[in-house]
Amino acid sequence: MYCEQRRKNEITIVDCFGRFDEEDTNQFIQRLEQLQNQGIQHLILNLSPLYYLDSKVVNLLFFGQQFLQAHSITFSLVSPLSSVRNELVGGKVPGTIPIFSTMYDAIHRPQCAYQEC
Questions:
Q1: Rounded to an integer, what distance in angstroms lies between the CA atom of residue 48 and that of residue 63?
Q2: Is 117 within a domain?
Q3: What average pLDDT does the chain have?
């Protein structure tokens, strides 16, 4: 997986490209630690550019959510591709981590996470 980081207002957005699988575990954890050390308050993980999400990564996302929540960081996901979204829904992620269909919704309409709108 390849990631790019950007900021929009007070929100940090990490765009993820390609495949997200077990081999990306260390990279993902290191990035979360770096972001936490930077003092961010809100993180959106944009999974829109992903074409594959390994079902084993779902637990890693739960770990990330717990880590960020422990540091008072708001965490959400954007995932419009059905294959990625299906893995997230199958792993029961929407009940724990807000997932949005668009970046606009994630930034401007936080009440519109899956299962809420």
A1: 20
A2: no
A3: 92
How many domains in the chain? Answer: 1
Domain assignment of residue 43, given as a range: 2-112
pTM over 0.70: yes
Tokens of 79: 């995932």
- C-alpha distance from residue 13 to each of 44, 55, 76, 90, 101 (Å): 5, 22, 10, 24, 15
Express each pLDDT in 8-36 by its tens digit: 989 999 999 999 999 999 999 999 999 99
CATH of the domain at 39: 3.30.750.24
The pLDDT tens digits for 47-76 are: 999 999 999 899 999 999 999 999 999 999
| Residue 4 amino acid letter | E
**CA angle, 2 then 43 then 14, to 5°:** 15
Q: Smallest Cα–Cα separation from 54: which of 29, 91, 26? A: 91
